[in-house]
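Ticket closed. Logging final result for FAD-binding oxidoreductase.
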Amino acid sequence: MPPIDDHLAIFDPVTDPDQAERYLTDWPRDAKGRARAILRPRTVEEVAQIVRLCAAAAIPVVPQGGHTGLVAGGVPSADGTEVVVSLERLNHIREIDPANFSMTVEAGCILANLHDVASEHERLFPLALGAQGSCQIGGNVATNAGGLNVLRYGMTRNLVLGIEAVLPDGQIWNGLRKLHKNNTGYDLKQLLIGSEGTLGIVTAVSLRLFPKPTQVETAFLAVENPAAAVALYGLARRDLSDLLSAFELIGHVGVELAQEATPDLRHPLETRSSHYVLMEASASGLVDLSALMQRFLESAMEAGHVLDGTVAANSAQAGALWRIREDLVEGQARRGRHLRTDVSVPISDIAAFLAKTDAALAQAEPNAIPVAYGHVGDGNLHYNVLPPPHMAEGDKPAFLKQCEQVVYAALPEFAGSISAEHGIGRAKLGSYLKGLAPEEKALTEGVKRLFDPKGIMSPGRLFEV
Ligand SMILES: Cc1cc2nc3c(=O)[nH]c(=O)nc-3n(C[C@H](O)[C@H](O)[C@H](O)COP(=O)(O)OP(=O)(O)OC[C@H]3O[C@@H](n4cnc5c(N)ncnc54)[C@H](O)[C@@H]3O)c2cc1C
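Final structure:
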C-alpha cells in the first residue's frame, strides 16, 4: 500500500462493500462511482488533515452530505481515483442564540433536525425541502438549496450568516460570524455557497433564524390552467402580504403519481382539474391569519381564479395536503428512469413557457408523459418527463436526452435558467458550459484557480476538469 493510503487509513475508512454502497451512489441511483477511500472525519481539524494529505499528493477529493443531490455532484468518479469525505460525523449544534435569531451548526447536521432545534427555542429555520430528513446543511449550503419557502425567506444563500470551511490546500477558514449586517469588503462566504464542493469543504455554518409561526393556513385549490395560478399568486401576494410562504403548482398527473406512491392518499377535492395550487401562509403574533385567508379565498373565487378548494382544518389535514406535493416525487421515482429538470423563467412567463414546451414536446415525442410542477413564486418549474410505460430500458437515455433538449430549447426566449436550485454537478455540465458567456467563463475559472490551483476539489463538476 503506498504511504498516502496508510495515512488516510487512520480516518476510519469505510471498507465493508455493503456499507460502502451508499457512498458510491446517490438518491436517484442514476450515477454510480468508485472511491480510492471513503473517510468520515469527526472534527474540522481531521477534515483539514485529510485535505492537506490529498493536496500534497494531488489526489482528488469529493465532499459528501446526505446523498440527496440530484445532479450527480457528490458521487465519486467511475475511475476510483477520488477520496470521498463524508461530513456525517460533524453533526453538532455549536450554539443557538435565540436573541440574535441565529444558530451555529456543523455541516453534517440533518436539515430536519435543525428545524426541531430551532423550534425548541421558539424560532424557525425556514429552509424546507422533500429531502429534509436526509440532506445535510453542508450539502444545502454547497448546492444553495431552494425548496418550498423561497418566496418568503430566500434561497440558502439568504439564510447563511457565516461559514467555516477547509480550503483546497488544507487551511481552515473561520468565517463563522453571526452578524446580520457586515459590509466589510468582498463577501467571500457567498462564493462557497452554491460552489458544489469545488472550492472547499464547508464544515460549519451560522444560520439566520426567524420567529416560529404560531398560525399556519394551508389550502389546496383547483385552477383552470397555469395562467390562472399565476393570477392567483398575484392576488395572494396582495391579500396575504408577506405572510405567504409557499405557492406550489401541481398538474393532475402529479396528483396521480402521488396516489400511486401512497395509495391511501385521498384526492382532497370533488372537482377534477388539469392544475392545482397548494399554498401556505404563516404568521406569529396578533395577526388574524385565518380571517386574512378567508378574505383572500373569497376574492379569488369572485375573480374566477379558483374552481374549487379546501383549507386544512388542522395540522394533520395540512400534512395530508403536503403529502401530495412530496409523494409525487416518489411516484416519479417508482416509474423508473425519467427526466428531471429544474428550470426557471420570470413568474410572468410561466404560463407561456409551459404552453410552448408542452406543444414542442407533443410534436417531438408524442408518447412522452410530461409532469410539470413547481414553485410559482420563484418562477421555478420541474418540467419532468416520464417515458412511455413499455419503453425498453436501453432506449430511455437517448429518449430522455431528446426530451431535455426540447425543454431547454424553450428557455432562451424567456431568458430562463437550466438550473433554478439543484445546481450543475456533472449531470448538467454540458448545457451549463454552452450557456456561459466568455466573460462569465473567464471569471468563474479565475475564482476556481484562486481557491484550488491544483484542481483537487470535485473535478468534473461545474468545470470540465
Ligand atoms: C426528494 C427530494 C426532494 C428535493 N427537493 C429539493 C428542493 O425542493 N430544492 C432543492 O434545492 N433541492 C432539492 N433536492 C435536492 C437536494 O436535496 C439538495 O440539493 C440538497 O441540498 C443536497 O444536500 P445533501 O446533503 O444531500 O448533499 P449531497 O447530495 O451529499 O451533495 C450535494 C453536492 O454538495 C457537495 N457537498 C455536500 N456536502 C458538502 C460540504 N459539507 N462542503 C462542500 N460541498 C459539499 C457534494 O460534493 C455535491 O456536489 C431534493 C432532493 C430529493 C431527493
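The chain has a mean pLDDT of 95. No further action required.
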